[in-house]
Automatic annotation (TrEMBL):
The keyword Transmembrane applies. GO terms for cellular component: membrane. It is a multi-pass membrane protein. Pfam families: Tetraspanin. This is Tetraspanin-19. The chain crosses the membrane at residues 15-35, 56-80, 92-112, 144-166. Keywords: Membrane, Transmembrane, Transmembrane helix. It comes from Dendrobium nobile (Orchid).
């Protein structure tokens, strides 16, 4: 029963990880598209104007870095779910908790601070403003996506803690010990055979010496 539960939890954690991985890959693809668009603008416009308004901005690289981070986190989550290693699961859960706290802090700052946009540097490419307009025009869809991401992260933390409490399957270690036992038996048999042969040889030598002593005495 515990083995079936462990397998189900592993599969569920991998599925939840895949959702975050898909989100990370989507962010990477969108960032690469923005970089490509900026490079095309740099090639079309003059050099002085492109340096001031068309060079890739902080927003593009931040978006790209976040996507790469989510992909790396997904890979580590798959490794932790497959191995059920306590250290891997703890590091994975701690990273997700830190990410949730960071997301909550950013969300609270956006809702409570009306001038939150001033905290970010100026984006010469205008991609940040385009992203804001997209979020505002599709606020319902973005809210559902945000709730889905938060739910996936929270469930991943819960499942990782449950897997850590269950621990790895001990049956695998028992089977490995049973498999290694027959391999040791021939060595024990050979050692016993060698010891028995040595004892017989020693006894044979003693018997021959006793016979020689008896012959000498009789003479």
């Amino acid at each position: 029963m515990a083995a079936c539960l462990r397998v189900c939890l592993q599969s569920t954690l991998k599925i939840l990880n895949s959702v975050m991985g898909l989100l990370g890959m989507a962010m990477i693809m969108y960032s690469l598209w923005m970089i490509r668009a900026c490079l095309q603008q740099i090639g079309e416009l003059s050099r002085g104007f492109s340096e001031s308004s068309s060079s890739p901005s902080w927003f593009i690289f931040a978006f790209l870095g976040l996507g790469i981070f989510l992909c790396v986190l997904t890979c580590s989550g798959h490794i932790a779910a497959e191995t059920i290693n306590n250290h891997c699961l703890s590091c994975y859960a701690a990273t997700l908790i830190f990410l949730l706290i960071l997301e909550a802090a950013i969300t609270a700052d956006i809702f409570l601070n009306r001038n939150w946009e001033e905290a970010f540097p100026h984006d010469p490419t205008g991609r940040f403003n385009q992203f804001k307009e997209f979020v505002r025009s599709n606020s319902g869809l973005c809210k559902w996506i945000g709730l889905l991401v938060v739910a996936v992260q929270a469930l991943s933390i819960l499942l990782s803690m449950v897997l850590r409490a269950l621990g790895p399957d001990q049956g695998e270690y028992d089977e490995s010990d049973d498999d290694s036992l027959p391999a040791r038996l021939p060595l024990l048999k050979n050692q016993a055979h060698i010891t028995h042969a040595a004892d017989r040889k020693f006894l044979g030598n003693n018997d021959s010496r006793i016979v020689q002593i008896d012959d000498t005495v009789s003479r």
